[in-house]
Structure formats: structure tokens, C-alpha cells
């Protein structure tokens, strides 16, 4: 139940689009996403928000939730992974194990949905932003992402050789022994951990990008962009 305001003096003063009071419960405002500032281009807007998130205190601003589905839609699965690169042609590149459930889904049904969530403080104000992306996942040629593999930290390369993603582990100690052998081969013997055949990358080509933005006491604004047949974007402002 909403609290009743006893008098006009309880409301406080209005400054721009926000209402300020001594009581946090009585503050409200309306957020505004200025799409014109980004030339009505959702990729420019994403890059701006992403760069700001990377400059905040967030640990992994490139983390995204990826949802996939089987061909018949009976199995829908979501998991978090990392955005590895935003390609020059506006594709969102991710990497994974080709033996995983997500890759089985992608082979049957390339339609995916991604979501980024960023909550952080800027100049003492809480910023809350979400970006949703619906699109088609395309498996890339190895030559397109080998550099991304090479740039991975050591533990990621060890994992790529060690782990069969999603497979049941019968003996943790045996897995640990294999890990230590791989690690020692690299550190002590200088053996190179080449990119394994099951290491794969996908590019998500967006068909829809939706932005949700607000601050601590504001009602969120949302801007949805839909890709047209001529590769232009049609945008609409939608209610929170």
C-alpha cells in the first residue's frame, strides 16, 4: 500500500523532472534516454553505456546472460558468459565449448536472447541499466577468433583443454591431477596450449536491442530498436 500524503508541504519541491523531499520514500522522477544524442543508433548507445560500465566499480561489466532453446522450444536454458568482442559489423562475439548444451541448442535453433545488467554508483547516484538483445547466433571460422583465444589468461586455456563442459565429473582428484599436468607442462616445460578443436566462437547478430535506464528514484525509461530489412533501425520509446 502506498503511503498517504497528509499535506502539500509533505511533497517537497520540484526541480526539473524530480521531486525532492526529506523522506526518501516520497522521491520520484522520470528517467529519459536521449537517443538523438547517439544518432538514433543502438550500437553507439550500447558502446557508450558499456564504456561507462567498464569505468565503474563493476567487476565484470562484460558479463551477459544468454538464453538458448531447442528446436521445438521445449528446452530453454539461460546462463551467464562474457562478451569477448563487439565486432566492427555490430556483432556480439561470445566463446564456449562446442560440446556444451548451448551449442547443441544453437545447432538446432540459432535464435538467442542476451541481457546485460549494470548497477553502479556514479557521482554518488545509483545508476541502473539493462540492455536486452534478440538475434541470430552465427558460428565463426576459427581464423576469426584465434586471436581472442591467444589473448585468454592461462587458466582459461587450461580449462579449455581440461574440461568437457557439462560432463559429469566422477573423480575430482583425477581432474586435479590432469590440471596440474597441463599447468606444469606450460609453466615448467614451456609447452604451448594450442586452441582445441572444441573451442568455438559465435557472433550474435542483433535484430532487436532494448535499453532500460534509470537512477535511484526515477521511473525507468526504455528505448527499443528493431532492425529493418534495409539494415536501418526503427526505434520506439516504451513504458517501464
Describe the structure.
This protein has one domain: Pnp Oxidase, Chain A (Roll). The chain contains 5 helices and 13 strands. The strands form 2 sheets. Strands 4, 5, 6, 7, 8, 9, 10, 12 and 13 form a 9-stranded antiparallel sheet that branches. Strands 1-2-3-11 form a 4-stranded mixed sheet, with no helix packed on it. α4 crosses α5. The longest helix has 16 residues. The protein is globular. The N terminus is likely disordered.
Helix and strand topology:
Blueprint: E1 13-15, E2 18-20, E3 28-30, H1 42-54, E4 63-69, E5 76-82, E6 85-86, E7 92-97, H2 101-108, E8 111-122, E9 125-139, H3 146-150, H4 154-162, H5 172-187, E10 199-215, E11 218-219, E12 221-227, E13 233-238
Parallel strand pairs: 3-11
Antiparallel strand pairs: 1-2, 2-3, 4-5, 4-8, 6-7, 7-10, 8-9, 9-10, 10-12, 12-13
What distinguishing features does this structure have?
240 residues; alpha+beta; Pnp Oxidase, Chain A; 9-stranded antiparallel β-sheet; 4-stranded mixed β-sheet; 13 strands; 38% strand; globular; disordered N terminus
